[in-house]
Amino acid sequence: MEQNFIDWACSFSYCNGGNADADIWLCGIEYSNGSEEYYKNLPDEIKQGSVKQIEQFDWKDSLKNKYGMNFAKLYTAINGKDVKDYKDVAQLTGDELLKLNLYPIRFNSTQHHSRWHEYGLDKITGFESRHLFNEWCSRHRFPFFAQKRKEHNPKLIICTGIDYLLDFLMFFGAENIDKTIQTGKIVPQSEKNRHDRTYYHVKVGETLLVVVPFLSGPSGLNSNYLLQQMGNEIKNLLND
Questions:
Q1: How far apart are CA 121 and CA 17, in angstroms?
Q2: How far apart are CA 169 and CA 189, in angstroms?
Q3: How many separate domains does the chain show?
Q4: Is this structure's pTM higher than 0.70?
Q5: What is the CATH classification number for the domain harbouring 163?
Q6: Is residue 227 part of a domain?
Q7: In this structure, is residue 74 part of a structural domain?
Q8: What phi, psi does 98 have (nearest 5°)?
Q9: Cα–Cα distance between 175 and 165 in angstroms, integer?
Q10: Sign of the dihedral defined by the CA atoms of residues 135, 138, 140, 141, in that order
Q11: Cα–Cα distance list, 239 to 78, 200, 233 (Å)
Q12: Is residue 77 included in any domain, yes or no?
């Protein structure tokens, strides 16, 4: 395995920008919407090695996609406001947030087989499968961010995707902490799609780590009501 690949993967590669000293960090699974052009240019990007410069987080641009819009609503609720005021985040500087991802390669699906061989990622990364690449990241990329969490000690880390609870705990160095992971539930307002939304939270040092459902989809935080309630819950946890 080439050193520039290791340096690239174990750095801020494919983070969505922001400020490492921000009080709030947001972590997803991976950047979505990989294109043919993206995969063609990926080898040249990897050759550049470690990504040390974090771009400014762009609130206005983030509002153009569903994930960014719904996070803006969640962020607004955490700050004690109505989710309907979410567009106000467009006035923020971008220093209020650091946006990260577990894995540094774009995909249109979280399925392990997605596009791996189709776009030659086995040759680009040296791993025969996406599963093996993810396993390598858990042992090498994750410790990099666990150390960054210790260095910067944000007040709050929000992770999206409860099926990835263990991954998020490992990513931020919380898998071996001697504390009980607490479970909470958000009860939907409507009788339609009635199942409760489960979330998890734990203190890691001085940081509150909260793992919430995806911010869209049939089982996610897919309504203003659910986003408002989740934001209120996080606000109360911070105050406690």
A1: 24
A2: 30
A3: 1
A4: yes
A5: 3.40.470
A6: no
A7: no
A8: -120, 125
A9: 10
A10: positive
A11: 11, 17, 10
A12: no
